[in-house]
Design a protein that fits this description.
two-stranded antiparallel sheet, 10% strand, mainly alpha, 80 residues
Length: 80
C-alpha cells in the first residue's frame, strides 16, 4: 500500500491507499450483495473481497488486488 500511496496518491501514508481500497471493496460488496469476511470482533474486512494479503517476514503487511478486480477497474476507467 505504501507503493500505491506514493505513486498514485502522492502520499507516504499507506493508510490513505488502505481507505480507498476498502471503500472500493465495500461499494462492490454492497452493489452485488456479497458477504464480507469479518474479524474476531465482528468488524468487516472489506479488502478481502478484492485483494489478497500476507505478512512477509520483517516487512509491512502487503495487499495485492486480485487480477479479476484489477481488470474490472481498468475496464471501468477506460470506459469513463
Amino acid at each position: 500500500m505504501r507503493a500505491i500511496a506514493t505513486a498514485a496518491l502522492a502520499s507516504t501514508a499507506p493508510s490513505l491507499a488502505n481507505v480507498l481500497y476498502g471503500k472500493l471493496a465495500r461499494r462492490v460488496a454492497e452493489m452485488f450483495g456479497w458477504p464480507v469476511d469479518r474479524r474476531a470482533d465482528g468488524s468487516p474486512i472489506w479488502m478481502s473481497l478484492i485483494a489478497e494479503g500476507w505478512q512477509p517476514p520483517d516487512r509491512e503487511f502487503e495487499w495485492t488486488m486480485v487480477p479479476t478486480a484489477a481488470a474490472a477497474v481498468k475496464t471501468l476507467l477506460s470506459s469513463s
